[in-house]
Amino acid sequence: MHDPLPDWVPHRRRQIGLQIRDARRTAGLSQLALGERINRDHKTISRWENALTAPDLTDLLLIADALDVPLADLVR
After folding, report:
1. Cα-based angle 47, 5, 76 (whole degrees, multiple of 5)
2. How far apart (Å, rounded) are the C-alpha atoms in residues 47 and 51?
3. Which stretches make up the HTH cro/C1-type domain (predicted)?
4. Which residues contact 15 (CB under 8 A, 6 or more apart)?
5. Coil, strand, or helix at residue 62?
6. For residue 23, what are the CA distances in angstroms to 7, 27, 34, 65?
């Protein structure tokens, strides 16, 4: 049995999703276009942006590279 996540974790997940969305929009990309750049389905991009799931470190690195933003900008 897993311990429940601390209350701040879902909040941070939402913030990271918003940062991904903002960076994607600033880059002028749709979810589909970003998904194609990082070899992920656009539905996965949507789930990350809406904090339904969380990208792993590899995905965050790919997103940062595809959007030409520092990784730190996505996780602040």
Report:
1. 60
2. 6
3. 20-74
4. 76
5. helix
6. 25, 6, 11, 11
The 10s digit of each residue's pLDDT in 24-55 is 999 999 999 999 999 999 999 999 999 999 99
Token pair of 64 as six digits: 């940062």
Q: Who's near 66: CB < 8 A, 6+ residues apart?
A: 27, 29, 34, 37, 38
Q: Please choose, from the candidates 57, 26, 29, 32, the residue with its C-alpha nearest in 3D space to the C-alpha of residue 45.
A: 32
CA angle 72, 33, 17 (to 5 degrees): 35
pTM of the shown model? 0.90
